[in-house]
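Submission sheet (multi-component)
Chains listed below:
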Amino acid sequence: MEVNELDKDKGDKPTFTRRVIIENVRPEIQDGRFPIKRTIGEPVEVTADVYADGHDIVHAVLLHRPLSQQGWKEVPMEPLVNDRWQAKFIASAEGIHLYTLQGWVDPFQSWSRDFSKKLEAGQDISVDLLTGVHLVEAAAKRASGEDAQRLAACAGEASRLRKQNLKAAVESLSNVELTTLMMLHADRSQATIYGKELKVVVDRERARFSAWYEMFPRSCGARGGQHGTFRDCEKRLEYISGMGFDVLYLPPIHPIGRAHRKGKNNTEEATPEDVGSPWAIGSKEGGHKAIHPELGTLEDFRRLVARAKEFGLEVALDIAFQCAPDHPYVLQHKEWFRERPDGSVQYAENPPKKYQDIYPLNFETEHRHELWKELSSVVLYWIEQGIRIFRVDNPHTKPFDFWESLIAGVKAKYPDVLFLSEAFTRPKVMHRLSKLGFTQSYTYFSWRNTKRELTEYFADLTQTEIREYFRPNLWPNTPDILTDFLQFGGRPAFMIRLVLAATLGASYGIYGPAFELSENRAIRPGSEEYLDSEKYQLRHWDIDNPSSLRSLIARVNQIRHENPALHGDWSLRFHPVDNDQLIVYSKTTADRSNIIVVVVNLDPHHPQSGWVDLPVEAFQLDPQQPYQVHDLLTDARYFWRGIHNYVELNPQVMPAHIFCIPQVAAG
Amino acid sequence: MEVNELDKDKGDKPTFTRRVIIENVRPEIQDGRFPIKRTIGEPVEVTADVYADGHDIVHAVLLHRPLSQQGWKEVPMEPLVNDRWQAKFIASAEGIHLYTLQGWVDPFQSWSRDFSKKLEAGQDISVDLLTGVHLVEAAAKRASGEDAQRLAACAGEASRLRKQNLKAAVESLSNVELTTLMMLHADRSQATIYGKELKVVVDRERARFSAWYEMFPRSCGARGGQHGTFRDCEKRLEYISGMGFDVLYLPPIHPIGRAHRKGKNNTEEATPEDVGSPWAIGSKEGGHKAIHPELGTLEDFRRLVARAKEFGLEVALDIAFQCAPDHPYVLQHKEWFRERPDGSVQYAENPPKKYQDIYPLNFETEHRHELWKELSSVVLYWIEQGIRIFRVDNPHTKPFDFWESLIAGVKAKYPDVLFLSEAFTRPKVMHRLSKLGFTQSYTYFSWRNTKRELTEYFADLTQTEIREYFRPNLWPNTPDILTDFLQFGGRPAFMIRLVLAATLGASYGIYGPAFELSENRAIRPGSEEYLDSEKYQLRHWDIDNPSSLRSLIARVNQIRHENPALHGDWSLRFHPVDNDQLIVYSKTTADRSNIIVVVVNLDPHHPQSGWVDLPVEAFQLDPQQPYQVHDLLTDARYFWRGIHNYVELNPQVMPAHIFCIPQVAAG
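Outcome: structure written.
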């Protein structure tokens, strides 16, 4: 059923004839200021308090529609307890959808309920029956066509029978057909319409489920010391795809500034051979829309994107809105930068540190209109080259409104574009960026190592309102982050963090080949910076090293793909185990047809064992019967029984189980 | 400091120069749709998330003003942790007050912070110093008078000293006077103003702290069988006042209908002697603005009100918007009632029950404008007779919007008027009525008997957002409610419920003299109706009966008056005791100068004992030293030590302790 017009002016305001109250609607982010997020096919389950004064029967419906269409679809809401109601719809297409609620009192059903009680009590109901007849007559007037005729006929019949055969008259007002017709033609002129139309941004599945691989193209050269090109990257695609990744994310591919270029290991003085940081964007060869000549041409790039696609890989680009001193913007648009009192351009600072190779843009400049438009055009330019995923560098140092307008503008035209926010900052700032439009966000996962830290953090991300707008993307390492845990935990530490990232997060990523080769040398003690970081120099990686984790990664990504329970984060639940070095959690599909239980030894140095408690009843397992747990990592199968079962994990062998529990028919 | 103009259009919207975000403001009821409540002198403590992109220093202020005044008062907010800020103001006068927030980034303080770091690192800061000078110059232009001169002088001095004595120049930009002036003349043209002006309804103290006594005037006759009058009531004032009550609440005092009048014990047929229910309002003698002739004249009534005042008692009237069949409205305004199909007026029903002595008003009538206005005039009429407190009968069976407009209209003119909602219905409906304007509300206290029930219910009422708008008023009994606990617990049950009501609730009430005389005879098993209920007949009460609880009541009310901890509900905390028949809780003043600990034996039949745990550190007591607990009920004093202490209560003697713990200077 469709309602074509909502009279928006008459929502929850003191218009005294609208007796139904609709409030406490969930999900609703900050009074509806921000949309919730879903991917195609995901349900939007809406609950609300709906009630009226007095004792009349209330009805409520959930209304939803794509922003681009006019007609609302209606779903009847079901009462739960305590005046709370519920209904859901499926987000069936990309783009923005709207939802709202409507509620009304139903005099006919209220009359019908009271009438039944009087009948049961054997009271004289001949006058009461007429009240019902009048309600049916009124509905007949609201209806048209056959419905109007049937309603009128029904009222007429009851009225006629009243004096002859009261029992038959009563029956004529209580049959199913009449009840249905009365519902269909209820008087909704006094219905309360919830005052807000709430938004859902519906993305393609990759927004929710993705495995990212970050790689510096310039390190893909055939030989050490040789600057890699896009053509070289093509040769690496089979390797990356073979590990089961979906997204190949490249750091900035633009010309790199020469002025104040940093040398190897971030030294102040660069030699002429030094390649500089890809994030120091812009030189006389061009800026954010240009390609670094040593990587190849635009055509080479487009070819890489196309070849990657053949391998099931989507190329993601980096959006880093800052400039090297020799970026064309600096010459052509000095007004887009801050000026120091001595007339020079203000470089980036984190006092007392100075980053003289980087000029931040002044987003508050009087000429911001032109600046913002230009930056938006950068994104659109790469979209035109076939890119649909962007990893955004430090969005938290630019105004929130800039991102909100940029992302809204892009997604209005290209709803399939995804943005990953690299905001390693305070929680509220990260959340704001997610709310205003970023599809996914980096998280604090990198620094959450203990069972308590992981449990608290992921319970927060997956079981609270945060999940409505914040989609976590978990990275064990990045070119900026080599954690203590990885530095000092050896190869098992990488295995542990891989399994955690790939199973706690439906979206995760690694920075390779550093990751699969367990690169763990920091520039100095206490620093998370890599020694000989690719940010400042070429690296030649021995990807065929036999100690590489590539086959484990491939296995983990295959498990992810084959098990729908791992395609989302909302079903994540942690389970007790009597050893703080072990963590146990599960993910399940809504119908329990796929149950994944992960056990990880968080200690990279010692074997750990313990007794796991599983919620066998929630898993719909017979607590009296043994059940199989199948370790998808090793293909081992165990028979467990009941709630308590024993596990033991040696990190030198395999620090984790990823169990699948096949469902067996009960009995 | 005052801000005279808030540019309301530029709140939290994509106006890109307003970088500060203000969100998650508390208290804020349903997006600011409803006001919070305070009494004069109570603080309004406001918290909010306030932050900006990047790393600039942010400032925030809380703005507040009475609705009737234009200028905002400003209170600087203090940062807590995690971008949460806090400030408070005192609600200093009756009526509606507004509050909102403002936040801005401070370039001068941001500059100053960075400048210090550079200085410490020994960097060349001569150019950076000029940036500071420019910021001071800009502030000089915004300021006027002496401030402008001092700022300009300061900038000039720093600028001049820069080349001669850099150290002196730096000092001239970092002194306290300059910092204060820069704060005072900060550039707030880009400040974010929170999009909503939130409301506080400020009432007089009685809204928060009140002891009510309900009494049927017609039962105050000097002799049994004689219809009591207002003059008789006057003679009862000393008795009521002597028990320490503040509010004397009278059931409806209007003429009582004769048609379908109910007899004693709610029988269908009344004899000519039967006095009828005071809630069957209206007869040929008049309606809601008239006085039942047998009670006296309007003059008698006004005299009673004045005499009560002399005894410290405020008279509260009952607002029951329904009519007896012979109410003048029925004759004059048949359009205000529902008509049955046979042309008769629809009487009240709760099928299969019929209340033919009561006609409900049709609040949805087409003539509602006139009806609503007339009903409003009823309240205003009694206000003009000196009444400022109304107990409203069954407000949940009338439209929410009716009450919202009625109460708002009355309180705009008479902010000292208080309304008590008698809505014994579903929680959300009760809460809605409180939010839309009722000052106090009846609660489920009457049926919460066990420790768990009481703890959960009162934790909810006093420790969650509910407390911002819902002020509980606790009644152990009413003319409609004689609970099982009172029916079967004997005199100790009345003592238990009295102490609970009077100490769990800063506002409470009893229906007397039934209560103090431990009247516990129900009309039949399983019913909460009194036998020989005063609702349908006169009762003559032996108030001097030696078993009366009047002296206990007087003692309890005296304790309430003398102990400010009992004047509010928000400090209520429950404490562990190892016996489920005992309940222990405390109320304290904010400064801990008054600490009240209540221990109640919930079992009216048996002595109970147990070990109580008190939070001695939260009470600011020395856990190593003995401390005195002084039972204000019995005047007994005990010396306790540490957390665990023993209690024992015999319900036949005294089922409760009300301990005061005097503060001793730490030593």
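Remark: Chain B has a mean pLDDT of 95.
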